[in-house]
Write a structure and sequence with these properties.
Layout: E1 18-19, H1 25-28, E2 60-74, E3 77-95, E4 99-110, E5 113-121, E6 124-149, E7 153-176, E8 183-206, E9 213-222, E10 225-238, E11 247-263, E12 266-275, E13 288-298, E14 304-306, E15 318-328, E16 347-361, E17 364-378, E18 387-398, E19 406-418
Antiparallel strand pairs: 1-4, 2-3, 2-19, 3-4, 4-6, 5-6, 6-7, 7-8, 8-9, 8-10, 9-12, 10-11, 11-14, 12-13, 13-15, 15-16, 16-17, 17-18, 18-19
């Protein structure tokens, strides 16, 4: 089973952890916009309709890695967190002129925290320690079809069908300091095994005959699902709470408590506009500027853990609005492009986002803000769509109240996309004479 600890956040204590895949480098530079397919040399696993919009005859393989560094603080003090994980492993293949397929693996939710609290009563004190770890992951296959594919308009639809798997654990221990390290330990583990699916659509249209102005509209819908799950719960007395071999006295034990986790529906809507100057009227380089925006809505109040008398986590509905800009100094592929410097071929990206998170502290819902920047480095040694993408995110999550826990974070995202050169053809059928 593929598993990684991809969170170091106290906000992952509730439910099955923090939702959402780790940032992918090529979209991470643009506010993490993920529904709009504005570049046929990039894999967009979030919107499955994008698979049929890839460059003809150019299958793509993508892998990404993300590192996130956080500082958490409130009026009582501060501490740091760090995590590194794989954001995606994906292959996408265009088939003919209208179809595209993809196969991949990416994180679904992440849990990771380690917190301590000490309370005092008369002459004794008790130390409580809270730990969480684990992740759930999504192995998926996707199919897309271009309903409309004319010289100026494209309309594609698609779906992802995936297998959701993994486990997350909450561990709590309590120790009377006079008897340390002996104490009580309880463990709660959720094990998930279920199908997951989502649907997407993309519409693109050139607004002029010269194809210098292009409009983008997109939508992605993930319906509410009931995830097949198992809940394991155990309560022990341990002579050493830090050593599982010392969990000798079992006070309570429940194994394979079968139930459902109701995971909320999610909707994303995006739009964008890309512009290229009229080089017939000027000797300047043929640059491209794209501006994109989207909003994501998640109905987190519908989240429910259905395991008999088990108490479910409570969340608030969320939205996140995002904006991103991509600038390419030169997209010229004519003969005169041979004299253009490499820096003019790099894709420059900036963006940001603002919204609400599902977690609340003392009845106050968390807000998230972030600014982003990124670069896309094309491989020019051969005629290929391969590229190295790097992005940087900086942001904060807080309620706005100084007494509540606040997170400041930055992340560095790397991704490589590999495509065959013009001299190679993956999956090409050859004829023998």
């Amino acid at each position: 089973m593929w598993a990684q600890t991809t969170s170091s956040s106290p906000y992952s204590t509730a439910g099955i952890g923090e939702e959402g895949a780790l940032p992918e480098a090529h979209y991470g530079g643009m506010g993490n916009i993920s529904s709009i397919s504005f570049d046929s040399t990039l894999i967009n696993t979030y919107n499955p309709s994008s698979y049929s919009l890839l460059s003809y005859g150019q299958p793509l393989f993508s892998v990404g890695v993300t590192s996130r560094f956080s500082t958490y603080s409130n009026s009582s003090g501060s501490f740091n967190g760090k995590t590194t994980g794989i954001s995606n492993i994906t292959m996408a293949i265009p088939i003919g002129n209208r179809f595209g397929i993809a196969l991949g693996l990416k994180p679904f939710t992440q849990k990771g925290y380690n917190l301590s609290q000490r309370s005092y009563a008369y002459d004794d004190s008790t130390t409580f320690n809270y730990q969480g770890y684990g992740s759930t992951n999504l192995l998926f296959v996707g199919l897309a079809y271009s309903i409309i594919k004319t010289d100026r308009s494209y309309l594609s639809v698609g779906f992802n069908l995936g297998y959701l798997f993994g486990s997350v654990t909450n561990q709590r221990s309590s120790v009377f300091d006079a008897n340390s390290p002996a104490g009580g330990v309880d463990l709660t583990t959720y094990r998930l095994k279920s199908l997951y699916y989502s649907f997407g659509a993309n519409y693109q249209r050139f607004l002029d005959i010269d194809k210098r102005k292009q409009l983008f509209v997109s939508a992605v819908y993930s319906p509410q699902i009931s995830i097949n799950s198992y809940l394991d719960y155990s309560l022990f007395y341990a002579t050493d709470v830090n050593n599982q071999l010392s969990y000798t006295d079992t006070i309570s034990y429940v194994d394979d408590n079968k139930g459902k986790i109701v995971f909320p529906s999610k909707q994303t809507f995006g739009a964008g506009y890309a512009f290229t100057p009229d080089t017939k009227k000027t000797d300047g380089m043929k640059y491209q500027l794209g501006i994109f925006a989207e909003v994501t809505l998640i109905q987190w109040k519908a989240y429910d853990e259905q395991f008999g008398s088990h108490t479910t986590s409570e969340f608030s509905n969320t939205y996140v609005s995002k904006i991103g800009v991509q600038y390419i100094p030169s997209i010229d592929v004519t003969k005169k492009a041979k004299g253009i410097k490499y820096f003019s071929k790099i894709k420059y990206r900036i963006g940001g986002q603002y919204g609400l998170l599902p977690n609340s502290i003392n009845g106050r819902q968390l807000k998230t803000t972030m600014v982003t920047a990124g670069l896309g480095f094309p491989f020019l040694a051969q005629k290929t769509n391969s590229s190295l993408n790097v992005s940087f995110n900086y942001g904060a999550n807080s309620t706005g109240n100084a007494a509540d826990l606040k997170e400041r974070f930055y992340s560095i995202n790397f991704g490589i996309i590999i495509a065959p050169s013009s001299y190679e053809k993956w999956f090409k059928k050859y004829k023998l004479d």
